[in-house]
Amino acid sequence: MSSTTSTAYTFDNSTRDARDQVQHLAGILDPHTFAVLDDLALPARAVCADLGAGAGTVAARLAERTGPDGHVVVIDLQPQHVPTHPRITIRQQDLVTADLEPDSFDLIHARLLLMHLGQREQILHKLAAALKPGGAMVISDWATDHLDDMFVDGPDPIREVFSAFQHTMIAVCEGNGMDSTWARRVPAVMRQAGLTGIRGETYNRLWNAGEPGMALHASNSRQLEPALLDAGMTRDQLALLRDAMTAPKTPSKVMARSWPMHTTVGFRPAA
């Protein structure tokens, strides 16, 4: 969840908690993302783009898959968590204004990025034009508009605080331009951009206190604490939330589902 927009992006990769956050996201989502990407047939000497690369784990995976003659381009405004790799080039750019050469990439991947960008539909069209004929686009974003379905079990005080946190955090993100329903609209926008063979799947996990998905909520609450307090949450509520998310052996043990991730794959028609 990396900062790649000229508008008020909610999360900042330069904060103290950002490294933990991007690592939590990689741990939570990489198994799903890797399975989707590994199912795609990449040509020899493939050139891939990873947009808003976070911890850089997807870029590294693609660099290994493309082999000695392939290459991966990372485009990210704050790429400091992406490790160096001989087949990864990092372009520290704002995707909104970045120039992408037509017919450049065999694969373009973006995870938890376009949902945050106000120009998301225009950007997707720009990305479609940057694909080579036969190239694939993979877009993964969370749908965050059914927040009351997330909490599964736990004491009522935690349920109330968890709900308040989710609604407050998503309101903060939407105030910065995030679209909670974008993930479900991606297939239609891909079709409008001329992509074909469009397919998709939804990924959702049940997490227990102390597991990575719960740790992400605690991390998010630290990163966004000033905005959450300004929006009406209290420090006591945030402390209670963090304890419940990260302490699996206490009486406040909880279970909750993640936000559903919708992953859509589309292809530029072959020439």
From TrEMBL:
Keywords: Methyltransferase, Transferase
Methyltransferase type domain residues: 50-136
SUPFAM superfamilies assigned to the protein according to its UniProt record, in alphabetical order: S-adenosyl-L-methionine-dependent methyltransferases
CDD domains for the chain: AdoMet_MTases
BP GO annotations: methylation
InterPro entries, per the entry: Methyltransf_12, SAM-dependent_MTases_sf
The organism's place on the tree of life at top rank: Bacteria
GO terms for MF: methyltransferase activity
Pfam families listed in its UniProt record: Methyltransf_12
Name of this protein: Methyltransferase
Native species: Paractinoplanes ferrugineus
Lineage of the organism: Bacteria, Bacillati, Actinomycetota, Actinomycetes, Micromonosporales
